[in-house]
Amino acid sequence: MESGPTRRNDDVWVIVPCYNEGPVVRGVLEKVREHFPHVVAVDDGSRDNSASEIVAAGARLVQHPVNMGAGAAYQTGIEFALRDPDAQIFVTFDADGQHRVEDVVSMVEHLRKSDVDVLIGSRFLGTVDGMSRSRRALLRAAVVFERLTTGISLTDAHQGLRVFRRSFAGVLDLKSHDMSWASEFLTRMSEHQTTYEEYPVHVLYTDYSRAKGQRSINSVNIGVDVLINKMLRGR
Amino acid sequence: MQYIKIPLVVAAVLILVIVFRNRQRVELRAGSRVLVLALAAIAIVSIIDPDIPQAIANLLGVTRGTDLLLYLLIVVFVLTTLGLYFRLRDTDQHLRRLVRSLAIEDAIHKDGPPRPEAGQTPGSRQT
Description:
- Chain B: Keywords: Membrane, Transmembrane, Transmembrane helix.
- Chain B: It holds the Pfam family DUF2304.
- Chain B: This is DUF2304 domain-containing protein.
- Chain A: InterPro entries: Glyco_trans_2-like, Glycosyltransferase_2, Nucleotide-diphossugar_trans.
- The structure holds 2 protein chains of 2 kinds.
- In chain A, the strands form 2 sheets. Chain A has a 7-stranded mixed beta sheet, sandwiched between helices.
- Chain A is built from 9 helices and 9 strands.
- Chain A has helices at about 20-35, 50-55, 70-80, 100-115, 135-150, 165-170, 180-190, 205-210, 220-235; strands at about 10-20, 40-45, 60-65, 90, 120, 130, 160-165, 195-200, 205.
- Chain A has one domain: Spore Coat Polysaccharide Biosynthesis Protein SpsA, Chain A.
- Chain B is mostly helical.
- Chain B has a domain at about 5-80.
- Chain B has helices at about 5-20, 25-50, 50-60, 65-110.
- Residues about 120-125 of chain B have low confidence and may be disordered.
- In chain B, α1 (about 5-20) packs parallel to α4 and α3 packs across α4 (about 65-110).
- The interface between A and B is medium-sized, with 29 and 24 residues.
């Protein structure tokens, strides 16, 4: 593990799913590429100019011919990055600009020094700009839900900024197509008894990301999906 | 309380539990085929002699034979819906895997493997 090319994060792949993010994706990817040479953006069947913006930003483009959802897009990016034998560290990153590259840099550094396999960003250990009170309450409820269903205790269960090692990327195999991928990620961690830590991150809730983000009512869909997936796994 | 309520509630719960837990099992698929044949037999018997379903209905505490058929129909409908739901889930999963592998092969074919200096030519496969 140590002998790999760790210089300027050459062993890191940043995975960015992208669905109709044309107005912002180029800027987001260019910022990521200042620190990480290997970025794969999965265009999840966008109907706007996302694909050409991804190419213009210099990231690798993988294109879903049809829209398959965020979870499916992350899994595609991970499988693409796994084809690089030197890839050791994987990062899931949002295309709408709510995550900060500085957080990824320090998370990757932290993961190199620590011996855990997964680092999960937490908004509640860090700071949040412009999150509504109801949203905060909802995310607290999600934390309790995850604790009950996976046994993994986090301060922020639905934060998409996560950094993990190749060993975990290989077993992740996300099957959820939509936003419930974040829960499935935790389920896989508990199945494989993966070691993890939380890491404080700063999340920017801009008008753009708020407009693009999921509506709170969608948490009902996610919760039911997670429960059904749990039941079906026990076949 | 009518006796019919007991088998109906038990059936509903059993369907959910058995189907959810064992949906891949051969026995279950065999069971659904037997059920279809049994229903067809019941239908034929009911057409030939409508008094028979009526007699069974009376035995179970249902007023009319048609009601008994309605209840059976509901059970069959729930089973069918669940079966289709699982089938669709599996099909979706297969479709996602197919699209994913196409998308990755396509990207590698166009722009080369994720790490070109690894000595791979564009379009070659890496495991």
